[in-house]
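Narrative summary of target 7.
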Amino acid sequence: MSTVLIALGIFGLRILDVSIGTVRVIYTIRGQRLLSAILGVVESGIWIVAISSALKYAQSSRLSMVAWALGFATGTVVGISLEQWIGTGWVMMRAISQHKAGELRDTLLGRGFGVTTVNGEGRSGRVLILFVVAPRKRGKEMLAAVQSIDEDAFITIEPLSQAIGGYVPRMAAAPSAMRK
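Modeled conformation, tokenized:
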């Protein structure tokens, strides 16, 4: 077998095992044990084949070592991209608007988001703080809705490990926000 084909094989295997490993770690952090364990078995099997090939051909071709390193780097990027595309989990947005908080609340409620408001006081006086928990796939839709009404709103968005109780929307993203 040619050294280029061997290197390409190692490169491909590394992309697979590192991509799966990246996604596995994210699911582990989110507490999904069974899925993490299954991904771990698949990842380990691919890794064993990849390392065996790399070590077998390491002496005859440095190209296999370069393929190993490049496959690792590429697999990391692919794994992160896969996880973003899958888009599981929840996000929480906090939005603070000086003058349009009521309109923001009504718009978000109208789009099926659960909104909790809390009175607060900021540097410029009294404000209304909006808290919204939503499926991560709807995060961009939620952000766009806020920014279309108040581009000066202060917004923070962070991932949640769990959302329990209250109103947690389980509906799919609106057609305009769905990934293609």
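Residues 172-180 have pLDDT under 50 and may be disordered.
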